[in-house]
Amino acid sequence: MDVQLLTFIIVGASFALYIAIAIWARAGSTTDFYVAGGGVPPVMNGMATAADWMSAASFISMAGLISFMGYDGAVYLMGWTGGYVLLALCLAPYLRKFGKFTVPDFIGDRYYSQTARTVAVFCAIFVCFTYVAGQMRGVGVVFSRFLEVDIVAGVVIGMVIVFFYTVLGGMKGITYTQVAQYCVLIFAYIVPAVFISIMVTGHILPQTGFGATLSDGSGMFMLQKLDNLSIELGFNEYTSGTKSTIDVFFITFALMVGTAGLPHVIVRFFTVPKVRDARKSAGYALAFIAILYTTAPSLAAFARVNMIETINGPEMTGTSYEQAPSWIKNWEQTGLIQFDDKNGDGMMFYSGDERNEMKVDRDIMVLANPEIANLPAWVIALVAAGGVAAALSTSAGLLLVISTSVSHDLLKRNFMPDISDKAELFYARLAAGVAIVIAGYFGINPPGFVAQVVAFAFGLAASSFFPAIIMGIFSKRMNDKGAVSGMIAGLVFTAAYIIYFKFVNPAANTPDNWWFGISPEGIGTLGMMVNFLVAFVVFKMTDEAPAEIQELVESIRYPKGAGEASAH
Amino acid sequence: MAFRNEDDKKAYWKENLTLLAKLLVVWFVVSFGAGILFADALNSVQFFGFKLGFWFAQQGSIYVFVALIFVYMAKMNAMDKRYGVDEE
Lengths: 568, 88
Hints:
- By secondary structure, chain A is mostly helical.
- Chain A is built from 22 helices and four strands.
- In chain B, helix 1 (about 5-35) runs antiparallel to helix 3.
- The chains are: A mainly alpha, B mainly alpha.
């Protein structure tokens, strides 16, 4: 059976599964819609959180990025996992005890302020839209490459599927489809990695194969070989980085804190029955995420060795373009591989210096890897299904936050406090529907700055939500004025820095011009500090939080008496 | 009040914060310490086929993160019981 037919069957089967789950788990009340009735078992919530978190970027792009960045890729590996420690230890249990539906709910109630709630709502909506456009694009890209349909058609198919289970099932539908999507995506990620690990090193586990000797009988360690190749070909040594230590530090920190402050991740911990379940499911979530995140760097290294050897040949003298393997020709058509025979010898050569004749896009490292390694057709089909699962699960989680923000935080808590549960549910569904259409539009017509705005999402979460929530839990007396001015200061500072270097004056975006050598990707860390500092100073000059708020804070610090999440 | 007395409430919170501080020190040391600040120094140590600093940055710290959350969970559940503030 040819690859394309297999891909249709496997992707189609996964879609049928998601739709079946959505029909089974449709939402009957706002509690179902917002927090899945508050009854999700911790292991399942862990899987759902993992799928929610691991987006098209994690699945498709991350290993490729690491493959080209070497050591520096660690900013993503540590940054996107370390945040869960903060989440599990400092946020999730307390927010679960607080027992409301959304992050703006917490900020608004804890700081007894509509202004705080409104600032939080707009941050949440902005962060989520930023993210979701990239996801829809990911769906479109996978469809167009593997099924050879138009990108527009791919995005529309993705929209219809997400629309179906988000609008119908709300959080409940999303949660159980995410469990299925986790299984699909992790299987799709691990299978090719295991194959390649066995091929290159003879180890079944990519994590140990990463540090093993090559199976070609040379007795050399795989990483040693990669370092040698990198230097020989004029790249940087793979295991040491090119970014400055301070920048690596700040980027990693911003990604960690941003992760812990992302509303679509936090809201997952409102869905479990108890506080102890929130702690437990954070642990499971990270364990499930770690399976992919420890495989990715191994895959990155294997893929790089494989690719270099395939293109340059065992003697590192180049291979004939005429007899190039079919994947090179296939990916050339998409423009992701380009060959420019500079010296006219008909041989392909890939290097980091002036001898280079190849342009290789980093995104193909995961998608083309099965072809590069000559894996069976069903593995290629599986990777397509995994990529779609990763993109769909994350989009659904983000769209839900957008719809909740509109129907609950804006309408119910601001403009229409007397609205009935049924009407609120209607507005939630309507908002989800509208959000999907907008996201789809951005997926089809991506603003040129999608890649840049990701830094934005993390920077904003790090500099606004994270400090506000932390102070709300760990300082009883922190007041509304301190928190609001902190959030606004952190936000404005971070946004201004990123906007300046990414949009206003991109030419100046070099280490010489950065403050303290911190890139826009890492500025969220400084923004977070600004937030804490401003909040503290303003707090010192104003009255502390009222007694009933201090009691509220004390009551979220221990688990006893946590009911299910409720609207009042 | 859920606690037996005011002292218990203070002691519980203090114990929680101490545990948090210890675990966050480990969190910081493996990632920002071993994986970033001291990565170059640790890279002179060979750990199987890895340079040690590189291993912490791309593998080791992630394993430690997972372990930290489960340790915290177990300790807190035991503490909740001890103070009688667990969910029955």
